[in-house]
Amino acid sequence: MVGAVCLGLLTAACGSGSGSGSSSGGGTLTAYVYGDGAVKVQEAAVAEFNKTSKVKVKLVEIPGDSYQNKLNAVMSSPNAPDLLYNWGGGSIKPFVDAGELLDLTPYLTQDSSFKSSFLPSVLAAGAIDGKNYGIPMRGMQPVVLFYNKTLFTQNGLQAPTTWAALQTAITTLKAKNITPVALGGADAWTEQMWLEELLDRIAGPSVFQKIAGGDSSAWGDPAVLKAAQTAKQLIDDGAFGKTFTATSYTNNAAPTLLGTGKAAMQLMGTWDYSNQLANHKEFATKDEGWVNFPTVDGGTGDAADVVGNPTNYWSVNAHTKNKDAAVAFLKAMATADYANKLVANGDVPATTSAKDLLSSSPNPAFAQFQYDMVQKAPSFQLSWDQALPAKQATQMTTEIGKLFAGQVSPEQFVTDMKALK
């Protein structure tokens, strides 16, 4: 099986990973990366590093839809990569538990300038059990509530920073036959965002932290039930329209509702701004507004908390013979040159120096909003389906889909979630 997987990942990559080379006499660091349009920034970083390093980095770009499966298949083999792109949390926990990833905490502790180069909340999101296994290497991807400024102004509405303001907007927009919130419910991960935000605003990050730590009984916390009940109330109130369960995000149907003025809001990761800019440029540049998720009445969660994908990370194979070279490559992620390349690509780097670079972003105001939001966040909760092990995450999104489709009650949802193993 390993041989077949290696063939699928480009034969040249196999045999050049953790078992080859030495830090003193040269060699190769094989780096697996998610292959998409943003990879050009990593390509440039590799080319720059290889100019001066005796140990060269070989970038292996793997199509996004098969990335995690292929990584899982080779990580325990002699052909595992030396460096691997990941989302932190559940995406790497099995590797950490198996002793396959290098604890980077000592390297960050020994080099204070390296550690202080990254926003603490983002760096912490790449940790497992308090130990750092990831270094930020792409832009931040928090979830925000996008809204149509023109529709809000025309209807005398305020940016929905409170639950009362959100409810007023929903009632007002429904009366005008405008779908209040675009939701691609055919993709359950879009519905997950609402529960993530609601649970945090109701109870703060501690409940899901227990769940992510392996305590499935924490799904029985009263705050989870309240979050599910609140989501059901939104559905019953018509916040998402009548056809959201058949509307997809991945085929661009949900974003198009927002971009064409047929819906007034959408809760989505900040990556959707680039999507709107590409497909509905006039809306994105003139009418699109954004706020952090509203506060919830009676909730104890901090209004400044953030959920989403803090960023993507580089992790290091614990068995690589080129640890020093691998860490040297990771330190390049902390440089202003690398941050500048991310900004030019439309990303907001997770570095503390990024604030001074954002004026060159394609949308400086949106970039500054993201940066300030994450910098001030007491907590940045990793998306649930990335924080949990793959099997649990799949079961969880299935149950979330049932809740939003009205196939189970909030009470049954909690019971089903407690049974996840």
Automatic annotation (TrEMBL):
It comes from the Bacteria. Gene3D superfamilies: Periplasmic binding protein-like II. Coiled coil: none annotated. InterPro entries: Bact_solute-bd_prot1 (IPR050490), SBP (IPR006059). Pfam families: SBP_bac_1. This is ABC transporter substrate-binding protein.
